[in-house]
Specification:
By secondary structure, the protein is an alpha/beta fold. It has ten helices and seven strands.
Length: 264
């Protein structure tokens, strides 16, 4: 989605979403445009749309790249740190922070556990739940590794963020969810993929499909997650060249319809 933060809120309201996720950069851009935190809160209140998630914090874990050496669309994401996210959460009443280890150097699991424990304590002091997302372009490449880290950290406010596209392209199946303890997975971001992408780590980011258009068992995955945590975060995250060619409102409407279908 190419929208600014206020436009995102308006589009979400117009297409039936009750909440959105934002990046730290989106909030910074909104302030630069002249809006205040109060303006944004009022925009959300008027629209009936909450901000449920700050996504992502990518600079907090060891091995994360230097922002100055990271270009392209992700470069700005590494420029924002923990304190930035805490300020945003406080300003906009956000309750969840998604943490990722992306484009990062190889780091032992023990080092990630050592970093996450104190991070979770700091986040807890700000009233935040922390979700840890796995993706193969870092040292948390798959669900098994993410679960190992969450279990070893033992923080009461830490759980896994389950991205269905990352899960599918790392070869995941429903059987991998057997044995999950309640609350170990605290969030899900839905996107579909063609059957040919299962186990294909190199699948292109912007090739994601809307839920229900591919081979990922999204409905079953959501059911399994909600069985373990009825209050888990459920969202949609579809990076797609095809959707980017549509007017933003039409793309959002299609996204909303796809989620209603798989969750019916």
């Amino acid at each position: 989605m190419r929208a600014s933060l206020p436009d995102l809120v308006d589009i979400a309201a117009a297409t039936g979403f009750d909440a959105v996720s934002i990046t730290p950069a989106m909030y910074a851009d909104a302030l630069t445009s002249g809006l205040t935190a109060g303006d944004i809160r009022q925009r959300c209140a008027d629209a009936g749309v909450g901000i449920s998630l700050i996504d992502p914090l990518m600079s907090a874990l060891p091995g994360s790249p230097d922002p100055g050496g990271t270009g392209g669309r992700f470069g700005a994401l590494f420029s924002y740190g923990e304190d930035d996210c805490y300020r945003i959460a406080e300003a906009l009443n956000v309750g969840i922070l998604n943490v990722a280890h992306y484009m990062a150097a190889d780091v032992p699991v023990a080092s990630l556990v050592d970093a996450l424990g104190p991070l979770c304590e700091r986040a807890r002091s700000h009233g935040l739940k922390v979700l840890l997302e796995f993706m193969p372009e870092g040292s948390i490449p798959d669900l098994a590794t993410a679960l190992t880290i969450v279990r070893a950290t033992g923080a009461v406010n830490l759980a896994v963020m389950f991205d269905t596209w990352h899960f599918f392209r790392t070869g995941g199946t429903l059987n991998d969810l057997d044995g999950l303890a309640a609350g170990e997975v605290g969030g899900l971001q839905a996107a579909d993929a063609p059957a040919s992408q299962q186990g294909v780590i190199e699948a292109k980011l912007n090739s994601r499909l809307l839920p229900g258009q591919g081979a990922v068992p999204i409905g079953a995955l959501i059911d399994r997650l909600l069985t373990g945590d009825p209050d888990a975060f459920i969202g949609i995250e579809v990076f797609s060249d095809d959707l980017n060619r549509l007017p933003m409102g039409e793309g959002a409407a299609r996204a909303r319809a796809s989620m209603r279908q798989v969750m019916a």
